[in-house]
Automatic annotation (TrEMBL):
Belongs to the beta-class carbonic anhydrase family. Binds 1 zinc ion per subunit. Its EC number is 4.2.1.1. The lineage of its organism: Bacteria, Pseudomonadati, Planctomycetota, Planctomycetia, Planctomycetales. It comes from the Bacteria. This is Carbonic anhydrase 2. Its cofactor is Zn(2+). InterPro entries: Carbonic_anhydrase, Carbonic_anhydrase_sf. Keywords: Lyase, Metal-binding, Zinc. The keyword Lyase applies. GO terms for molecular function: carbonate dehydratase activity; zinc ion binding. It comes from Gimesia fumaroli. Zn(2+) binds at residues 108, 110, 161, 164. CDD domains: beta_CA_cladeC.
């Protein structure tokens, strides 16, 4: 057998490199500088984070307020442009046998509102229901009841957004095929401001903003009225039902006070 004798200084350096490498592997996500761009920005190589899919025990331990805080923190990362780099392929495999999401979010159909990214959530983290105008109906209520009563989610979040075509269409009384019946679900938010003295059209940003917020608040009210299951769960502190508005310019979600 041939024995290799290392210089003491070289052995020390190798030991340091090994220890450093092990330490870096425990920090996720990690970033390594690769080059300097001509405009002064630094390109980085970000290592994807392999988040464990939530277990039922971990889901049970969460409170509605904790889940809301997690969504707020995720939205802050979205606004700052520091979204978590995730290994979605691994998460798909881990979530194959079950799901225990933290929340159910009712969002508009609008393609400019990427819900999972908006809250920096990964596979298996949240249920998402989408319909133009983010209103509730029987199918969505049933989906929310499944999410909370059956699957254990702790939060119902109604997410409206600025520049909503459905809201504008309801304000202006648009009639076109099945869109007419769909917009009727948003009409209560428009009618809420019958006494408003200003311009009651989509050309008035103030009026649109008022109707957009009222549509979210009205949806929350109807969820409680039309789903005794969710109302009881909220009364018992098992879940929380909240709403917010997504800012199309900044990406920030602002909670609405009821």
């Amino acid at each position: 057998m041939t024995r290799m004798i290392l210089n003491p200084m070289l052995a020390c350096c190798l030991g340091f490199l090994i220890l450093t490498g092990c330490t870096q592997n425990n920090k996720q996500p990690s970033a390594t500088k690769t080059s300097n761009k001509t405009d002064g920005e630094i390109e980085v190589d970000v290592k994807p984070l392999v988040n464990r899919v939530l277990t039922q025990e971990e889901q049970n331990a969460l409170t509605p307020d904790q889940v809301l805080t997690l969504l707020k923190e995720g939205n802050q990362r979205f606004v700052e442009g520091t979204l978590t780099a995730r290994d979605h392929s691994k998460q798909v495999r881990e979530a194959a046998l079950g799901q225990y999401p933290k929340a159910v979010i009712l969002s508009c159909l609008d393609s400019r509102v990427p819900v999972e990214d908006v809250f920096d959530r990964g596979i298996g983290d949240i249920f998402v229901a989408r319909v133009a105008g983010n209103f509730e109906n029987t199918d969505i209520l049933g989906s929310m009841e499944f999410a909370c009563k059956v699957a254990g989610s702790k939060l119902v979040f109604v997410l409206g957004h600025e520049s909503c075509g459905a809201v504008n269409g309801a304000i202006d009384g648009v009639e076109l095929g099945n869109i007419t019946a769909m917009l009727a679900n948003i009409q209560p938010a428009v009618d809420h401001f019958k006494e408003y003295k200003g311009d009651r059209t989509s050309q008035n940003p103030e009026f649109v903003k008022m109707v957009t917020a009222q549509n979210v608040l009205g949806t929350i009210d109807r969820i409680r009225i039309n789903s005794p299951i969710l109302k009881e769960m909220e009364d018992q502190g098992e879940i929380k039902i909240v709403g917010g508005i997504y800012n199309m310019q900044t990406g920030e979600v602002k909670l609405l006070e009821e």
